[in-house]
Amino acid sequence: MINRRKFIASSISGLAASAAMMQSSCSTNTAISGQINPGFSALGHRLRTMNFPEASREVKSPLVVVGAGVSGLSAARIFSQSKAEFLLLELGTEPGGNSLGGANTFSSFPWGAHYLPIPNANDKELLSFLTDAGVITGQRDGLPVYNDYHLCHDPKERLFIHHVWQEGLIPHAGVPQNDLGEIQRFLDLMNVYKRHLGSDGKEAFAIPLSFSSQDAALLALDNISAAAFMDEHNFRSSFLRWYVNYCCADDYGASLDNTSAWAMIHYFASRKGRGANAESDEVLTWPEGNFWLVNQLRKYCEPNLIKNALAYAVREKDSGVEVLYYDANTNSSVRILADKVLLATPRYVTERLQQGIPKLNSFEYGPWMVCNMTLRSELNERRGEPLCWDNVIYGSDSLGYVFSGHQQLQRPELNKVITYYKPLTTLPASEARRFAYTKTFEHWQDDIIRDLSMAHPEISKQIGDMQVWLWGHGMISPKSGFIWGDEKRMAQKSWLGKIYYAHSDLSGISVFEEAFYQGHITAKAMLGV
Known about the structure:
- This protein is of the alpha/beta class.
- Helices cover 27% and strands 23% of the residues.
- A hairpin with a 2-residue loop joins β13 (309-317) and β14.
């Protein structure tokens, strides 16, 4: 995606397309309408067959960006500000990648990533973009002032545990003292890493990630799993391990066993941004999630954006680069002759587009299932904290749900939309992907209702509609040895100064800041600025 939760470093007491796709609502509960939304997978999967018509026309453009996810949009912003001529190709009907959003009669909602943490002070280009977008309204005492509308409103987070809703996501309600002590010891250690500087004087863990220290002792943490790190430090509490596993699933779509210890610590130790009216643990969010940010970025590229355009070949030529794309609107192919091309595509797509580059097996992507549910009545609540922006169930392998209308000034009493996230982490990624695409709408409906019934016993009667979206390659998984490994470093290098690459998977962490950073630094390199 997908979701960084509030990291509370104080006392505990304060404390996720196949034949089944587009099946409609012949569900086990016939009162619930819905479907599996195929998204853009049918068009994208044509890359497997490479069965496209010959190009019927030819155009020229000095610069071409393939892929209008956040990296591609970020690059397009730089090209637009530099008044450079470019084209931006996007296979979908809308730009955004896994930051897409949607809407129905009652509310906008996210299909993927749905918030942005307060950026770090060193992320100057992101802060500039947020200022242009009106998210930052000024400065006070040397700190940015954030528009209150965009800061996540209270109440923010709750966890259903021991039959009650508690405030915050770190388990504390009914948790034994020994476990509370161990949780606090873990948080204290993460705070040490948060303040630590490497032997090169750089922050041990930073975002953008490339600003992080290259101290060998710190980089060695990338070579062991988060689970091994927990074992080595005698973190045995089931409550703590559930929470840290949840955090790895949340940001990386992976489990403790499949996340590097460096990446796990980065989740807790890299966020240091502050505003005059916002602390580092606060987030910016919108009813449509990060699609709001996407729509701010697309303003820079709208005249240059070509949608329903599937690039299927990128070839280096003596005089530049040839890009072939299929126009789904006209069922025809187009040849673009460019000086330079930016592939803002995940590595597994890049390897299909550009012949001759090596296949890199270390790039692994976690699949996700996301469901937007429209409620026909108020949720039947257990006791404890009221409905929050983020609502998580202890012990579940889902990430719970976000109330999409939380930021609306006039919150609806009925017909709320909630967005349910489930990274598929219990199987190896390739198996989980096959599993997801063979399951019916009824399967997902039953799975979601079974999970949510733990906290909402009458949820099946309260849901009016369920819209399911499958992300087969939802986000890069930073398994042990990947983030600072040779293959990722190799994938970042441009091809003969003509073909460049930018995507969050080249960072190793699939979050907005990394995708945005990859886009703007690569665009500047292409322009020589």
